[in-house]
Amino acid sequence: MMILGxxxxxxGIKGAIVDTSSGLMIGERHRIATPQPATPEAMAQTLKQxxxxxEWSGPIGCxxxxxxxxxxxxxxxxxxxxxxxxxxxxxxxxxxxCPCYVVNDADxxxxxxxxxxxxxxxxxxxMLITIGTGLGSAIFVNGHLHPNxxxxxxxxxGRIAEHYCxxxxxQREELSWGKWGRRFxxxxxxxxxxxxxxxxxxGGGSAQRFDRFRDELHLRTEVLPxxxxxxxxxxxxxxxxxxxxxxxxx
Length: 250
Ligand code: BGC
Fold this sequence. Notes:
The protein is α/β, with parallel strands linked by helices. Helix content is 34%, strand content 28%. It is globular and about 50 Å long. The mean pLDDT is 96. Bound molecules: beta-D-glucopyranose (BGC). Residues 65-67, 75, 77-78, 104-106, 130, 132, 134, 136, 150, 152, 162 line the site of beta-D-glucopyranose.
């Protein structure tokens, strides 16, 4: 099935047409900067521009940087506070004229990696962490997702973890990869202590630079970069939409 997969982030809105049976993107991905302030109206209009770019009129899967319950946002860490309690799926469907299925962005990336990437066939506890403007988390137990985990909001050294070791912090504080990697190592050690996972998968922009910080990670848990690197969010959002469409048919 072809679905427009969209990854909505604090700094960019990225989309591509995805073949959900192979997990491959068909053609180029397109990126538009996230409007500031990132209000519902402004973001819906940006999504519409993306849809127009692809001349798309089919279903859309959206990974969104907030907790999402049945299409409604319940948090807003890196987006405008007016998103809280907003029905994201309805606002996006109204703006684009397409059916929209909305899921937390890290959960979306996790779904892609479990189905086609580094987590394929992996049992036990797999934790995916996306490193971008914020820190996103997705936990799978024997392949089943526990949604909306928000582990980027744990406290680290008196700060919220995503204010301590996200990619945005690395850039803003001009941290070397070594210094940032040591911070991120502390964060993963905390997650390892609390959750005892079998595998960590790292997604988001920084996962593409895994070689720059892998030597700073001292864990007993295996750590792999996401196989689809920064595209996992787009692919996973499309997979989520496909799963919702399939569920509606039963
Ligand atoms: C949000 C999460 C999101 C993560 C990555 C955090 O600030 O609270 O919902 O998954 O950023 O975008």
